[in-house]
Amino acid sequence: MAAATFIPVNPSVEDCWRGIILYGQNSASYKFALAESLLQLNPQAGQLVKLEDLAPVFGKAIATHISHSPKQGTRPGKFLQSVQSYNTDGNLDALVKATVAGGFQDVIDAFHNIGTSPVLHRFFVDERKTNKGIRITDEFSKLAQGIQIANITQEVDSRWRLVETAWNLGIAANHLVVQHDHELGEIFTFDLARRRKRVTSSRGALNGYQKGRCFYCAADLRLLGEDFNTDVDHFFPHKLKQSNLHLNLDGVWNLVLACQSCNRGPSGKFDRIPSLRLLERLHTRNEFLIGSHHPLRETLMNQTGVTLEKRIGFLSKIYNEVQLNPELAWEPENEFANLFPVLP
To answer: Is the whole-model pTM more than 0.90?
Structure first.
């Protein structure tokens, strides 16, 4: 699954931001740290953010993650050693100096790239040579003022935690499988000693791949606060566990985020089987997850098949076994948009 499928021909600023976070190449966690720092500082359009002002936020973000996940990249470096020292001695001046000297060398150049191609909308302009900083664009302000901004902040943290988990557990990528705890609403895995390790919230991990919208009706989802409206739903309902299908219905492949109206409102899905059209949408969403690699790719492929053909066959077989009356297949009462292109 190419990121180009996830990002439409005429992408919004949110599409571009999510493409960067979910599909950008990661040899270190610096891209997540820069994204988190910008969201925290929330600079205005046209503002110059000096590296010396960005450095303490950026450095502390990595320091926080290093404290529980020491491996923050595929190769160690002097900068990460300096961050580790800050966790020991608390010397902020030394951390800022090390960050300005070595923390931004590659990430500012590569931030807007997915593979070898830049996204359409850029969130800052590099002015390190002329003004020792980066200048914020109108696109970043538009992102920061959007309805999705609280979700986007959580998505950055969730993606960071997923990637660092793959680096730190010492388990081969094709053996690393994350699982879902429905009661706690979290994704977890096990380390080499078979100890359970919490990774991140399931809502934060899944939301970006649905572009912050309900899987069924495309209403805006809100993951936090008084307007919280998001359920983790089993596409094939949980009650099918009673049918001896020998399926991992709690697997990530079967979990989608739905607004509470679609999931359990007056015309909600509840325990009904969705339509074949929505099954095709589930396939597309799963391919989005597979395209993002660590560790969701390995999890989805282990659960549904290593090839596209096997994954299609996996979903079709289940659907044919459980959808006994297609005329009663559930559809959302209202649908505001179709965010998922039909894939092979």
So the answer is: yes
